[in-house]
Amino acid sequence: MLHLRVIAPAELRNPILNVLQREPGVTHIVLHPNAAVEPAGDEITADIAREAANDVVERLKSLDVQNLGAITLEVLDTVLSSAAYHAEDAADGDAADAVVWDELVARTRDESQLNVTFLLFLCIACLLAAVGVLTDSPVTVVGAMVVGPEFGPLAALAVALVRRRMSLARRASAALLIGFPVAMAVTAGATLGFEALGWVELTSTRELHGVDFIFQVGPFSFVVALLAGAAGMLSLVSAKSAALVGVFISVTTVPAAGFAVVAATMGDWDIAAQSVAQLAVNLVGITIAGVLVLAVYRRLQTAKESGGRRSAGV
């Protein structure tokens, strides 16, 4: 279930309570009159079955609560209440299949911000990938896959395309279009530094055998990117973080960027180009898969809402 907290002017008290009391998937409604100081107004809380959250939030937004006050949602891990069980049973659908769109937009917006933390993670991931290439170590390359933060902006881009949030699309695109060149430039400098220190001898990437799969672009590169993107979006929607780790390990997004840098440093421009192509295939494939998954969820939600209106005789 989700815990809802609403802060709103006192004149919206009855309309808000009416929205909550009319929804079978809502329970544990609590009113604190004039409890809010900034912005001034009432505090109203309730527990909502995940399946009912979209309808409730949309009705509250139609009252302009988000501008006059605030709407917050919090995931509840454990709820021991017969009323809560009845609310979940009364809600239409299954919690695991419910997409709370505002929650998804907020989550992906936070993970797609171009900030120092994002750049540091991306730089570290590219550096790990470069070290994995230089040492022909698949294990190190896998570590780079796990550390890479690029799925956040890709997921945000998919959400932005489906929900038509252009500001979110610009934010995610900026994180990718600025983040990768910066990380690759840092990696190039570090690679040349490793050579200057005598830690590695740069000859050719053509002699590598343990990590040569990174730059080998083929039809399965796109298939894997699609499957990984679909699994990643499903993990975000269902909040299954364990599945997301598997997504990181299955795609060669960051390793391709690292390989391109090392190959370019060694003068293997054809391999560097193939690595960049692998990077592009992964980025595009993951985004397309995310859009398709969300489009299916939106279609199912629309069909459910239409069925509900027909059942109500509307």
UniProtKB/TrEMBL annotation:
Transmembrane helix in keyword set: yes
Transmembrane segments: 116-135, 141-162, 174-194, 214-237, 244-264, 276-297
Pfam families: DUF389
Domain of life: Bacteria
UniProt keyword list: Membrane, Transmembrane, Transmembrane helix
The protein's name: DUF389 domain-containing protein
Organism for this UniProt entry: Mycobacterium dioxanotrophicus
Organismal lineage: Bacteria, Bacillati, Actinomycetota, Actinomycetes, Mycobacteriales
